[in-house]
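Working notes for the structural subgroup meeting. M.R. asked for a predicted model of this chain before we commit to crystallization trials. I am recording the input and output together here so anyone reviewing the notebook later can reproduce the run.

Input as submitted:
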Amino acid sequence: MAEHLCPGEGRTALDIGSGDGGLARHLHHELGYRTTGIDCSATAVTLAAAQDTGPGPTWQCLDITADDLAALPDAAYTLITCRLVYRWMDDKPGFLSRINRLLAPGGTFWVVTEIAGRRTSTDPALLGLGISPPDAELLTASWSVVRTADLDVLRCYALRP
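Returned structure, recorded in token form:
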């Protein structure tokens, strides 16, 4: 991640599907972004916020696919992260359109997702977790800069307009 992202220096970051908040806290405390973590689960947002012992990311319960984006604290984000979430988006073109509206000029969309066919498991439920080649092509098609890094069954994408 550090190879593909510049220091935050107080610029805005949005972590989509923040879960327990680990990535949002890393962006905020380690990389220096002013981070907002969102999740559609109120339980996840409560869990993430409960782990803060001092000033940290802003937490918000918000469904990125359906809720009003004006409810976010910033109109645009220098960095938008999406870790292990893209695969679950039913309307991937609609999701990517929303990302494009939120990403500041020159910003980065950082996606971490499992790639289909990389697991050695025989469990059909686990084999279906990765994105297909057409989903990967859809993810990368509209960006002028696409950088990737592979981590076992995962692929990280640094996407820029």
